[in-house]
Write a structure and sequence with these properties.
heteropentamer; A alpha/beta (about 70); B mainly alpha (about 240); C mainly alpha (about 130); D alpha/beta (about 950); E alpha+beta (about 170); A: alpha/beta; three-stranded parallel beta sheet; about 25% strand; flat; B: about 240 residues; mainly alpha; Fumarate Reductase Iron-sulfur Protein, Chain B, domain 2; 2 domains; 12 helices
């Protein structure tokens, strides 16, 4: 394989903790791979299971729900 | 040991007696039982005792144990316990008075003998050396060195020199057992041109009567020495102990 | 006072040869010679008491331990003895005179073999 | 909006009196124009001068131009003039050269401003004790001895080691860590801080617990060396017990000295264990739990404001006026008043706010502003016309993300009718541009691709509202914090991610619709439940603020427990004060006192509650906007130590009554014994009753004062005389009260022999059993909450495992209850002494005042909404953490069931939305559709409708 | 308007304070209650009253003039329970020493107070006090000596019992 596998990851970030944490990572310039597509939610509990399943079906290699 | 019964009577009085004697009562009541004293005390564990326990026994009125444990003779009253005690409790003074509560003749022989010898004459020497002997040793050693080491032919070891700046003490043992050890000191004093003197009275440096917790004798020794210094009109009293 | 003494010691032995023990100054450990312990007859306990001081001195890896007074000198010397002469115990005056080159042959009772013969003042006066 | 923040400022001069102070404030130069600074950080990157970072306890470095920390407010840089090379040596100005917005201003001059205020609240905080002066701990000499504050930074992800726990000496992970408590506290020898710093026990336990999470592998060990563990706050004891059950070791000992470890790595400590043996132990790191001192500028502040400090340098207050000073209109709060923890600081901050509000209520609203906007255009049914504004953030974004490519890409996205790239999208002139473009291109949805919505969304919402658009039609796409800053080395992938992010934003905003912020009419009246000190003080403070109050008390008299107490810990007599307060309450025209009252029902929610109250023989209906719950607690009846078998065995309150009744037997007694923790800190009630240690010590002092010959013994587990209550503990010891520690598993035994009371206890220091003769035995009976079952049922609020009413957040919302519009005060929340009960009562009045001060209350629009797809399955009802959803049945019309969501209670968390299997309930602004659109955009590059 | 204290006025008229209260209550003397349990009286009204009782008016100058004092809603809230109207006497003895003002030898607010507060210190306590006041109708000036607010709590890594991030 010539090309490295690049996963596409959907990230659900709770506005009050994970999203704030990701912001802080930015302020601190902590470097991490650019594979995650962040989606801000008001609570990690608001992410419906079928959206997670849908995402995986549509080709996401991973889904992170952070809260 | 059987349980201690407390509450009905006033507990032991030893601690309270000591507290009356000390400024602020030595803070003896203030103990938090934190144990910082015992943690840093080299005498912790000797005789199954430590400073915290010793103080606590006094607080519980266990006067008999407090006033009879030989541990009080193993505490050097170095005050390392007070150094870190959050409440600045004067345990060494408690130890001192516990020593004092021993019958004089039951106190450790070595200390007792040294004190008694020091009381024998006005030199205060713990080895009982009298005035003439001391003066003779000093002069004898001095003569010997002035001769053998011509650079120090002018060196002096004055005795009873009126009006000297410094009144010098010497450990009791040196003139008797190792007189040569006095010489380096003389040399230094000579080279710096110090105006100093020994006194035939009160020359001995240590005070075993204090260690013996014999207040009267301690006082006598100190007074004897102080009088010797005053009689010679010296300004500074230098004690190497 | 503590700093003045350190100044003198460093001048005498050279800054590089001075090792302070830890802890030091007001928070140092008592060697166990004082307070009458030396004369109280409890030699075994006194040696136990001095164990911390022994450890402290050994930790410095120094060859000489300077003691301020005769009580300490006797105790520290004793401790060295029971620890196989792990160090030499000296009075400060001995080192001052040694450094000034005026320490005669009879004034060296407490110097170790390494210094016993160094800069002897009037060696012929040995008795 | 109504807060003016003056940083780098200090008080110069104070004139005037309560109601009208004129205060001169010196504003030091920041050298950075805060209007222009966008906190891009370029200046700091280029600044050549490294300075010890005080925020990181000097363990890390910052630059001479700096922000205090990443989330600093204001997030604006400042130049430290003592270290700036240009300001000290006249050369450099690198920051100025590189600043993309021209924010650097070396001509910035210090200025003195005069400010007119009606009241002042002093909250300058504390100073952490500096242990450098103590030779025994080797701080500053031994590298692996750190202070607790340094350790806090060491643990922090934002700290000098990025949250990797390494010790300073060799940067390896420490396995064995020791905490030394009471460094700079409870010590009158090495320092002059005779008080307990109150917070160190808990922060040490917390640090040990957090450390457990950091460390892995074998051989880890955390040891806390303590004198008394003081876990006397709510839930603290449980936290302590958990730590004990976990791998934290608690050693009741105090090392004398910390010695350096081998090769100066780690430390060696010698301590004496409970058997009196000296233990020598090595640790990889020692943490000194340093105490809290009054702030350094306390004397100057006190002088300027003419207030008094106590003998420890903290602000002096009285128990009945816990935040008031001798200067009217000047209040103190936080750790400046006494060492205190976060919840207490937050509570008493509200107390101070209440005191300020009660003297200024005549001018409430006179200086505040509210913003008005032009009427909103109705765009609900318009086809989306999206404007995308891409921010370069100077070069913060543009250096990594190709913003031009991004703009080109955005142009082709569906519904996008305008794309712009700005140097700084947040700047004031760009706001004008956005408004202009909205008009020009008839934009009805906006995407801002810039930084984080957490700080900037309100700004852009405001811009939209100014442009007659609903504020909820903007979507921020975070291409800085979550893209350019974190993918600096991969510009291409970062650009791709930014494209996806913008695409996701567009997809989402296309489905945004205008949202209304619901308004609730506020009934400007409060219900106070419970007429003890907390409730009465709350009612008085509310009345002084001009609000009507209904105070209900289930007893036939006001006053509660205060009737049974003799004086406060500071020695203030309680009875006369209590009578005055009752008199004031009963005669206050704004307070309607209803005694023998029972709450029967509760309807409504924040702003508008209604209840039926049973009072004697009548039922009264009341309407109120908020409620303060102060139902109190009481002393329990002991179930042990032969309580009830003999009159001479009594509880604290019974003893106090005996003292009040001049019981001479007490004064003549030979011996009195106190036993602590009777029914507290045990299996059944695993909490500390907080007040009993101080109470016992006060009673013991009383006995020793009236009869110095009496033998007084206090048998305790940990003495918890926190703060300057420690002075009382010290005084009791000095008077000769003997304190004997006992173990939970080896409790004292009480016996009655020949009609004489004896208490047997094991004395741990001398390690012998002690038998105490007792003329009186006083038991520190646990404080238990009054029954709150009905209240909890009516308000749907909660109690903790011990039956105490819960607060909304243990640290940050200690007075609010989890149900909006309810506030908690006094012992029903947790056992507490008079001063703290009063403080919380007043604090509740302040918190309530926030709601009562307005006619209408706007709620956030992000709320759940029930759709017509709801079939009443009620799955969401239990899932809702805020009890905002109810099941209703429409028996008349459709005969169907459905759920109803109360917007006043809903927090928009959307758990209901995720739970509902058929889209029967959604959250505005975060509909499943919108989330799905974002996922689709991220994955398929096609908009799916 | 003149601000009066009942006790003082009673002294001047040589009557019991309750008498003065009753005058006000019955409307004989037109006075409005203010927040500090004082009353505002029109100067003319006071002069009229003095004349009526033939009392020298020179004392009027001793009372504070207060022209813009915010007076509380004078229509006394109707009591809901109303069982014992006497105990809810709004003209009860003044200032018995519980809240700050009385505790501190009585502050007389000569003018309407300034509706703003200064909070010195931007730590968690200062922030909470600021928010409470700003949200309940007062302008707040927050003075912080460093470059940003947050205080000591911002330096904490986590807080117990939740071990939440302290930020």
């Amino acid at each position: 394989m010539s090309e490295k596998f690049e996963p596409t990851i959907i990230g659900f970030l709770c506005n009050w903790c994970a999203y704030a944490g990701a912001d802080l990572a930015g302020v601190s310039r902590l470097q991490y791979p650019p594979n995650m597509r962040p989606i801000r939610v008001m609570c990690s509990g608001m992410v419906p299971a079928d959206i997670v399943v849908n995402a995986l079906e549509q080709g996401a290699d991973g889904v992170m729900v952070m809260g | 040991m059987a349980e201690i019964l407390l509450g009905r009577e006033k507990p032991g009085i030893f601690k309270d007696k000591v507290m009356e004697l000390l400024p602020e009562g030595g803070n003896l009541n203030a103990c938090l039982t934190c144990g910082a004293c015992s943690s840093g005390c080299p005498a912790t564990g000797l005789e199954d005792m430590d400073p915290k326990k010793f103080l606590r026994m006094a607080a519980l009125g266990m006067d008999e144990q407090v006033t009879s444990t030989p541990w009080v003779w193993m505490c050097t009253m170095c005050r390392r316990c007070i150094h870190v005690c959050p409440m600045e409790i004067d345990i060494p003074q408690l130890v001192y008075y516990a020593r004092q509560s021993w019958p004089r003749d039951k106190r450790p022989r070595g200390i007792l003998a040294s004190c008694d010898l020091a009381l024998k004459n006005d030199t205060c020497s713990a080895m009982g050396t009298n005035e003439e002997d001391f003066e003779f040793v000093v002069e004898d050693v001095l003569d010997e060195y002035r001769e053998a080491q011509p650079e120090f032919a002018e060196m002096k070891a004055p005795v009873n020199k009126q009006g000297a700046e410094f009144f010098f003490n010497q450990n009791s043992r040196e003139p008797v057992t190792e007189p040569d050890e006095m010489v380096p000191l003389w040399k230094i004093l000579h080279l710096v041109g110090a105006n100093w003197t020994y006194g035939t009275k009160g020359w001995a440096a240590e005070n075993y009567c204090m260690f013996l917790a014999d207040d009267k004798a301690w006082k006598h020794i100190v007074e004897t020495k102080a009088k010797a210094v005053e009689d010679l009109g010296c300004k500074v009293w230098l004690n190497t102990e | 006072m503590a700093e003045d003494l350190r100044f003198v010691v460093k001048k005498v032995v050279g800054e590089e040869n001075f090792v302070d023990m830890y802890p030091n100054k007001s928070n140092n450990y008592c060697c166990g010679g004082g307070g009458g312990f030396l004369q109280s007859g409890y030699a075994e306990e006194r040696h136990k008491f001095g164990q911390i001081k022994t450890d402290q001195i050994i930790a410095t890896k120094a060859d000489y331990c300077i003691t301020p007074c005769h009580n300490c000198h006797a105790q520290v010397h004793d401790l060295a003895e029971i620890h196989d002469h792990a160090w030499n115990t000296v009075h400060l005056w001995t080192l001052i005179c040694l450094s000034l080159g005026i320490l005669g042959p009879n004034e060296r009772a407490y110097l170790g073999d390494d210094l016993a013969g160094v800069a002897v003042f009037h060696p012929e006066s040995e008795m | 909006m109504n807060v003016e923040l003056l940083t780098l400022s200090e008080i110069v001069d104070v004139e005037g009196d309560a109601g009208n102070f004129t205060i001169k404030v010196k504003k030091k130069s920041r050298y950075v124009d805060t209007d222009k600074c966008i906190a891009c950080g370029l200046c700091a990157e280029k600044c050549p001068k490294k300075v010890d970072d005080e925020f990181n306890a000097n363990m890390g470095k910052r630059k001479a131009i700096y922000i205090k920390y990443g989330q600093s407010v204001p997030l604006k840089y400042a130049i430290d003039p003592d270290n700036c090379i240009y300001l000290t040596r006249g050369k450099c100005r690198a920051c100025e050269k590189f600043c993309p917005t021209g924010a650097i201003n070396f001509d910035d001059k210090e200025e003195i401003v005069s400010i007119n205020v009606g009241a002042v609240i002093l909250a300058p905080g504390f100073k952490a004790f500096d242990p450098s002066g103590l030779d025994c701990y080797g701080y500053g000499i031994i590298p692996d001895v750190v202070t607790s504050l340094e350790y806090e930074r060491m643990l922090s992800a934002g700290g000098p080691f990025q949250g990797h726990l390494v010790r300073p000496s060799d940067h390896t992970e420490p396995k064995k860590i020791a905490w030394l408590q009471c460094v700079g506290s409870r010590n009158t020898n090495q320092c002059k801080n005779g008080y307990c710093s109150n917070v160190c026990c808990m922060y040490a336990i917390k640090q040990a617990m957090v450390t457990s999470e950091h460390l892995s592998g074998e051989g880890t060990e955390q040891s806390i060396f303590y004198m008394d563990i003081r876990s006397h706050g709510k839930e603290f004891e449980r936290y302590y017990e958990n730590a004990r059950k976990g791998d934290v070791q608690f050693i009741q000992a105090r090392p004398h000295t910390i010695d350096p470890g081998k090769n100066n790595n780690g430390v060696i400590m010698r301590y004496t264990n409970t058997e009196g043996r000296q233990i020598v132990k090595e640790f990889d790191l020692a943490v000194l739990s340093v105490g809290l001192e009054a702030p350094e500028d306390a004397p100057q502040l006190a002088e300027k404001f003419k207030i008094e400090l106590n003998h420890y340098g903290f602000a002096k207050t009285k128990d009945f006026n816990p935040v008031s000073t001798i200067r009217p209109g000047v209040f103190v709060t936080g750790a400046f008043q006494a060492p205190k923890d976060i919840p207490q600081s937050v509570t008493e901050a509200s107390t101070a706010a209440a005191e300020a509000a009660r003297i200024l209520s005549a001018s409430r609203g006179s200086l505040t502003k509210t913003k008005t906007y032009p009427p909103e255009n109705d765009v609900k049914d318009q086809v989306p016309s999206i404007g995308v504004f891409i921010c370069s953030c100077g070069i913060n974004i543009a250096n990594t993300v190709d913003v031009h490519a991004l703009a080109e890409y955005a142009k082709d996205l569906p519904y996008v009718s305008f794309v712009d790239n700005n140097l700084f999208t947040c700047s004031a002139d760009t706001q004008a541009i956005i408004a202009e473009k909205i008009k020009e291109h008839k934009l009805n949805r906006i995407v801002i691709a810039a930084c984080t919505p957490r700080t900037h969304e309100p700004l852009f919402q405001d811009t939209l509202k100014e442009a007659s658009l609903n504020g909820y039609l903007v979507e921020m796409v975070n291409i800085r914090n979550q893209n350019s800053w974190v993918h600096q080395k991969e510009p291409e992938k970062a650009t791709q991610k930014a494209k996806d992010q913008v695409w996701m934003g567009v997809a989402r905003v296309a489905k945004n619709y205008p949202l209304d912020q619901i308004s609730v009419n506020v009934v400007r009246k409060a219900l106070v439940i419970g007429g003890g000190l907390a409730g009465m003080n709350s009612a008085l403070a509310l009345a002084d603020q001009g609000y009507d109050c209904i105070l209900i008390e289930n007893n036939d008299r006001l006053g509660g427990n205060a009737w049974f107490l003799n004086h406060t810990y500071k020695g203030e007599p309680i009875r006369p004060m209590l009578e005055k307060i009752i008199d004031k309450v009963e005669n206050n025209e704004k307070i309607n006192v209803i005694k023998n009252a029972q709450l029967l029902s509760v309807q409504g929610s924040i702003g508008n509650f209604s209840s039926e109250i049973q009072a004697d023989n009548e039922k009264i209906n009341v309407n109120y906007g908020v409620a303060v719950v102060a139902t109190g607690a009481k002393e329990s009846r002991p179930a042990e130590y032969m309580y009830g078998k003999d009159d001479r065995i009594m509880t604290h309150l019974e003893f106090d009554a005996a003292v009040r009744n001049n019981n001479n037997e007490i004064k003549k007694a030979k011996s009195a014994v106190f036993i602590q923790c009777v029914g507290s800190r045990d299996e059944k009630r695993p909490y500390c009753s907080r007040v009993c240690c101080t109470h016992a010590v006060e009673s013991a002092i009383f006995l020793k004062t009236v009869n110095p010959e009496m033998n007084v013994y206090i048998l305790y587990r940990d003495m918890r005389t926190y703060g300057d209550r420690e002075d009382l503990y010290k005084k009791a010891r000095d008077l000769g009260v003997l304190f004997i520690r006992f173990n939970r598993n080896d409790k004292p035994e009480v016996s009655i022999e020949n009609n004489e009371i004896y208490v047997k206890v094991y004395e741990p220091v001398v390690q012998l059993p002690v038998k105490l003769y007792a003329d009186f035995l006083i038991l520190a009976a646990a404080i238990v909450p009054n029954k709150n079952d009905e209240l909890v049922e009516l308000y749907k609020c909660g109690v903790n495992q011990d039956g105490f009413l819960n607060e909304a957040h243990p640290k940050l919302k200690p007075v609010d209850m989890p149900v909006d519009g309810l506030f908690v005060a006094g012992m029903c929340n947790y056992p507490k002494p008079v001063d703290e009960s009063i403080a919380q009562g007043l604090a509740a009045a302040s918190r309530a005042g926030v709601i009562l001060s307005r006619d209408k209350m706007k709620l956030d629009a992000i709320k759940s909404m029930v759709t017509d797809k709801c079939d009443g399955c009620a799955l969401c009802v239990d899932a809702c953490p805020y009890n905002a959803i109810k099941l209703e049945h429409d028996s008349e019309k459709t005969g169907k069931s459905y759920v109803v969501s109360d917007p006043a209670l809903c927090r928009g968390c959307g758990i209901c939305e995720a739970t509902c299997p058929k889209g029967g309930i959604i959250v505005h602004g975060f509909t499943t559709e919108q989330i799905q659109a974002q996922v689709d955009a991220a994955l398929t590059n096609q908009l799916i409708y | 308007m003149i601000e009066i204290q009942i006790g003082k006025l009673a002294e001047k008229f040589s009557v019991h304070r309750n008498t003065v209260s009753n005058w006000i209550k019955s409307g004989k003397l037109a006075a409005r209650p203010t927040i500090a349990k004082r009353y505002l009286i029109d100067e003319a009204e006071l002069i009229r009253f003095c004349d009526q009782f033939d009392i020298p008016k020179d004392f009027i100058g001793e009372f504070e003039k207060n022209d813009n004092h915010f007076a509380q809603n004078s229509s006394v809230q109707k009591k809901i329970s109303g069982k014992n109207p006497l105990k809810q006497n709004p003209f009860a003895p003044e200032q018995t020493g519980v809240n700050t003002r009385q505790n501190n030898n009585e502050v007389t607010m000569t003018d309407k107070p300034t509706g703003s507060v200064m909070v010195v210190g931007g730590g968690i306590a200062g922030m909470q006090a600021t928010l409470d006041l700003a949200e309940s109708g007062y302008r707040v000036y927050m003075i912080e000596k460093s470059a940003g607010i947050g205080g000591a709590m911002a330096q904490l890594d986590k807080t117990f019992p939740t071990n939440d991030c302290a930020m």
